[in-house]
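Q: Got a minute? One more chain.
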Amino acid sequence: MEIIPGNHTILLVDDEENILRSIRRLLMGDDYNVLTATSGREGLALLDANEVSLIISDQRMPVMTGSEFLTHAKQKTPDTVRIMLTGYSDINATMEAINKGEVYKYITKPWSDEDLKLTVKEALERFSLVKENQRLTAELKEWNAKLEQRVKEQTVDIRKRNKALLLLNDRLKKNFQASLEAFASLIEMRNKRFSNHSHNVGALAQKIAEAMQLPDKEIETIRAAALLHDIGKIGISDNIIMKNAKNLNPSERREMEQHPIRGQAAIEPIESLQDAGVIVRHHHEWYNGNGYPDGLKFNQIPLGSRIIAVADAIDRLANPGQAGGRYDFKRAYRIAKADKGVKYDGKVLDVAAKVIEELHGSVYRNIGSEEDEYLPGDLCPEMTLSRDVRSGTGVLILPQGFELTMEKIECLKRLHKVDPGKGGIFVYKKK
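A: Always. Here it is, folded:
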């Protein structure tokens, strides 16, 4: 057996030595490695030991025919290209081998040297193409696997970032809401006659907006505006604030009627509150156009302003300072209803009536119930406040009737260290 160095390895199998020498000499001028074997068994052994690109095998050989050898060779190295040398008398066996997919082409004896060299060249090009396709397929598979892994890693990273952003957004949202509550408490300190007014208007306006099935974003804006609707009164003197509206002189009335404009101006620099500022500006407009500051009427008045106008009036009329010592929403509604279509939007009043029916029951649910006093550290979620919670300096922290959450309890613990109240925190005993 002799090997001629080259890029491709060609295996010649024939039991006649002179044919092997002849083909080997023909291929010596090209850059091939040439292996020779005189039997199918020897050829199979060479396939086990070498990477062969092309097999040229005679058909008529003792012990193992060319068709049988090539069938075994296909099982060992299916990508190797197979060519059969055959005589005219073996043409039927050769065609059967071709039909079974065992050989690429057949060459009849005697052969044309040029045709044989061209067939070898084409066969090796075919082998190279198959190998290149396999290489590219493997590379593509590897690239896809890396890409898939990278996508998985990026997906995990994105999910982590999204989770962090959601947590941050939730924290910012909670801080923003807490800031609104704090502003509302400061506003309420300007007029102690109406305890919890800003918070109550915020809660009632929110319930009305929810009952009207408004979008969540609009409900949030209305609640923010309701909490801050009296922020413009901060700059008004106590002498005017404490007077009944009927007793204001013209100059004092003009001063008071500027507070919705001042309220809008106060929160205008805060981008997220600009829509709420518009609602604040118009919450004293009358439905018939006789309100202030711009004399808008009907649907010219923002819906949020119309809702707050109703909530504002009902809370003021239901406030213990106006209703004999306890909240009476039904009485307040009856009074407000007299101005339906005049001061207030009738549709909003109709929705408020349903909300008030629910509120009326919840407000009196615990009347006559006993109460317990706790320190902030002893409170539990779902306890209901039986009294307002104020700081030591008088700032309203949470209103009577509020159902505690763990978050609010933690807030009360922190505030107790900063500005402790004079006593404990009172909650209703569970019935």
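A: Residues 79 and 123 are 11 Å apart (CA to CA).
Q: Perfect, thanks.
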